Amino acid sequence: MMKLFDAHCHLQDPRIFKVAPQLIKTALNAGVVHFAVNGISEKDWNLVKEMSDDYPSIVPCFGLHPWFVAERTDSWLNSLKDFLRATPSAAVGEIGLDKGFQGRKTDFKDQVEIFRQQLELAKELKRPASIHCVHAFGDLLQIMKATGPFPAGVILHSYLGSAEMVPEFTKLGAYFSFSGFLMSMKENKAKKMLKAVPSERILLETDAPDALPEVHNLDTLFFIDTDSSVPEELRVQGENSTPSDVSPSERPSPGASDSSAVPKETLNHPANILNILTYVASLLELNEEELAELSYRNAVRLFSYADSKPLPYTSISRRRAANGDMEYSFEFEGLFSLCTAASRQPLVFFSRSYNPGSKDTLVHRCYGSSQESEDGRSTLELMRTGNSASNGVSILLS
Ligand SMILES: [Zn+2]
Fold this sequence. Notes:
Bound molecules: zinc ion
Protein name: TatD related DNase
CATH class of the largest domain: Alpha Beta
Pfam families: TatD_DNase
Order of helices and strands: EHEHEHEHEHEHEHEHHEEEEEEE
Number of helices: 9
Strand order of the largest sheet: 1-2-3-4-5-6-7-8
Shape: globular
Number of domains: 2
GO molecular function: hydrolase activity, acting on ester bonds
Structural class: alpha/beta
Strand content: 15-25%
Mean pLDDT: 81
């Protein structure tokens, strides 16, 4: 099954928090393996942390969003540092600059100052940062040039900037993440911009509960049940219609069948990343599987940093070596430093193409050899770089 990584969303949002467990379940069933959940102000960082503790699939991100800059307390920066220190698996976000309708309500000088402090913090902590930018790409580039480059990566979330700026942002370490907002851009402009983005820097996101994708066929959309703005006849694919969770097409068609039938405030479901995938793949003239694979790998690479959450391995194969030992070979994604569990020592482990510290290596192939234990089972323990007690992942090899 295709694996997807929602590189930017807000599952802690008060509009959907109550149904978040069901949204996550539905999205997992649809192939979404991870969600980068972005806090937006001091008020929701705790909730993001709790959700991340409850769900291995959630990558927590803490940040002060430009719309909420005026509400900050005097201790916001210390509090942010405390959250990032107490949550070694966390990235930074959502932070940014906004000269749009909403953003104009906040003094731009303040925005710049708050943004710069958070960007510097992300760089210092070697974590990625998720960046919101509306009508301020010139300012953003200038600040990033003064602060960057960013070897841990930055995510230009819901990117709607120009094709021309892509190479400059790329040089500084940027990834480009696409959401339903891309559908508001003229198609030929979007196509030109997408084609300017290097394939190893493309990400997909929903920005749920915002940015509902515009679609021609409503049957492909997932709706959120508690959203009272959704007319009754569109709610059938809601969160309580469990058996049809992953087949939105089972929903009976309402009168009009495209997005024009849906009220503007309709909330977005994280499983709608499938619609983004379809749209971006069509503009890039890639098939959906290819784009899913490449955007997933990009996200796993980006969200692999010291003490990040263990991300899943892809495959294990084994064979009997000439000397009778079992030989394992497995491929996995992300950055790992590797060791065996001392107490279950039968696995002698060595690696060939493992390349610690390199974010360019997409797949590490590692080989271990082992005599099987009496019950025919061996357990291999992988530890992430950073080596905190909680970041190991155990793999049963047989
Ligand atoms: Zn967002």
